[in-house]
Amino acid sequence: DTGVSQNPRHKITKRGQNVTFRCDPISEHNRLYWYRQTLGQGPEFLTYFQNEAQLEKSRLLSDRFSAERPKGSFSTLEIQRTEQGDSAMYLCATIPRGGTQYFGPGTRLTVL
Amino acid sequence: GDSVTQMEGPVTLSEEAFLTINCTYTATGYPSLFWYVQYPGEGLQLLLKATKADDKGSNKGFEATYRKETTSFHLEKGSVQVSDSAVYFCAPDAGGTSYGKLTFGQGTILTVHP
Q1: pLDDT digit of tens for each residue in chain B (114 aa)?
Q2: B34 CB near a chain A CB, below 8 Å?
Q3: How close, in Å, is residue A15 to chain B by CA atoms?
Q4: Most A CBs within 10 Å: which of B101, B104, B106, as the mutation test of the A interface?
Q5: Is B3 helix (H, G, I), strand (E, B) or coil?
Q6: Is it true that the peptide bond before B10 is cis, omega within 30 degrees of 0?
Q7: Cβ of B89 under 8 Å from any chain A Cβ?
Q8: pLDDT in tens, A24-77
Q9: A40 and B98 in contact by Cβ < 8 A?
Q10: I want to staple A95 with a disulfide (CB 3.0 to 4.6 A). Which of A37, A65, B62, B100 is the partner?
């Protein structure tokens, strides 16, 4: 257990539905990252926050994806109108200033 | 942007064999380099890291040396154990103001048999 928690751990949804994932970081870790990992691949960067500011978004993050980190603590990742291609493991990671990343256990999304 | 090429797997070894997993990268500047490991059913864990040229990262008997001239960070272990069976990922850090942003290789599956 790295201290980074993610909920839910598994989510099964039907195509077209909206889903929201939550990441609770280690307290006082100022940067928070979201990655997506599909089967047999390494994680791919989606976006990151420094405190409450979203500093960078990958081109992988289509308009259907939105992420927030209100008050610079927990973060949410929402996917609207899910598609089967969104099925993946969504990973959250946090990092203290000058430190290395701690990954959460991930949320596995299955879109039927 | 940054990219990583990892040795394709799966790699299957007998216990106590020598392990090498190759990793080369392209990046702007001189990134910090990491190896992460993902054990079956578990999340990503940092295995080792190196932050500058010629640094050697080591942990749990694994080693990797930051080779700037060949842009490589190959992972080695002298004698693998069954418990080392996992997926291994090489990842440079973007560095600078984007520190912490990692670019992962596709991963190398290692299976160690007794």
Answers
A1: 778 999 888 999 999 999 999 999 998 778 899 999 999 888 899 999 999 999 999 999 999 999 999 999 999 999 999 999 999 999 999 887 788 889 998 999 999 999
A2: yes
A3: 26
A4: B101
A5: strand
A6: yes
A7: yes
A8: 998 888 899 999 999 889 999 999 999 999 999 998 888 999 999 998 899 999
A9: no
A10: B100
Q: What are the φ and ψ backbone dihedral angles of A71, each rounded to 5 degrees?
A: 65, 10
Instruction: Give residue A106's identity as a one-letter amino acid code.
Output: G
CA distance A47 to A32: 9
Cross-chain residue pair A31–B42, CB shorter than 8 Å: no
Residue B55 CB burial class (10 angstroms; 0-12, 13-18, ≥19): middle
User: Letter for the amino acid at B29?
Assistant: G
* Chain A contact for B25 (CB, 8 A cutoff): no
What backbone phi and psi angles, to 5 degrees, belong to B82? Answer: -55, -35
